[in-house]
Amino acid sequence: MSDAPGLVLSETAQVGDGVTFGAHVVVHDGVVIGDGVTIGDGAVLGKAPQLARRSTASREAPPPLVVEAGAAIGAQAIVFAGARIGAGAIVGDQAFVRERATIGPDSVVGRASGVDNDVRIGARVRIQSQAYVTAYSVIEDDVFFGPCAMTTNDDTMARHPKGMALRGATLRRACRVGGAAVLLPGVEIGEEAFVAAGAVVTADVPPRKVVMGVPARLVRDVPDADLLERWA
User: Fold this and answer.
1) Are residues 173 and 83 in the same domain?
2) pLDDT-based confidence at 25, cuts 50/70/90?
3) What's the chain's average pLDDT?
4) Are 86 and 67 contacting, i.e. CB atoms less than 8 angstroms apart?
5) What is the largest CA-CA distance in the chain?
6) Distances in Å between the alpha carbon of 9 and those of 21, 79, 136, 208?
7) Phi, psi (deg, nearest 5) at residue 182
8) What is the DSSP string of 64-133?
9) Parent domain of 17
10) Is residue 199 a contact partner of residue 180, using CB atoms and an 8 Å limit?
């Protein structure tokens, strides 16, 4: 710690053994950092959320941020209070992870990607650069989410009644979503399904199906040779 210039470390933060801090890192109150965590230059850990007046996110004070053992937080990444970063996970440079989001063990959030509040991401997920996972989405284990892909959760575009529940997307185990694909609110991508790059998904995609186009349409099955079990 003494070798990290500009480190701002709250007295109430808990820091495990073998933690490496870059320059000008800020660690807010109550943050829990596990053993062997690496934190890049200019990262901010445990930032409190600032909510708009009409935000649907909870206004209760979030619990402390927890970064589990062996995780890595990239340069200038921002990880909010109430998030949980699993063991061995990576949050890339300039990425952000909002309050009450969970990132499973050995998952990767790519450079400049955003994970919004109340998102659940499983283990070994690969979220590529500049992707966006909107609030209330669920991503199960072993999913691939391509660069600049995004999920959405409000089909009224902010013209909904106060208190209406928003619905993110659900991505089932080992599905794959190509670069720049857009998933509309509430859609489910089935287990081992494949969404082609640039597709706009307006309806649920059944397990092991390939969809492409605008709007996305079913074109074929995912062959046995492409299933995760053949590549694990």
Assistant:
1) no
2) very high
3) 94
4) no
5) 58
6) 10, 15, 31, 47
7) -125, 125
8) PPEE-TT-EE-TT-EEETT-EE-TT-EE-TT-EE-TT-EE-TT-EE-TT-EE-TT-EE-TT-EE-TT-EE
9) 1-47+64-124
10) no
